[in-house]
Amino acid sequence: MKADGSTGIANTAIELPVGKLQKTTAAVFLDRDGVLIEDRGYVSRVEDVVIFPWTARSLRMLYDSGYKLFVVTNQSGIGRGYYTVEDMERVNRHIEEVLSRDGVQFERVYFAPEAPDQPSRGRKPSPQFLFDARDEFGIDLKSSYMIGDKLTDLECGWNAGVARSILVRTGYGAEVEKACRERLRDALVVDDLYAAAEWILGRR
Question: Which domains does the chain have, with CATH numbers?
Answer without folding.
Answer: 24-203 (3.40.50.1000)
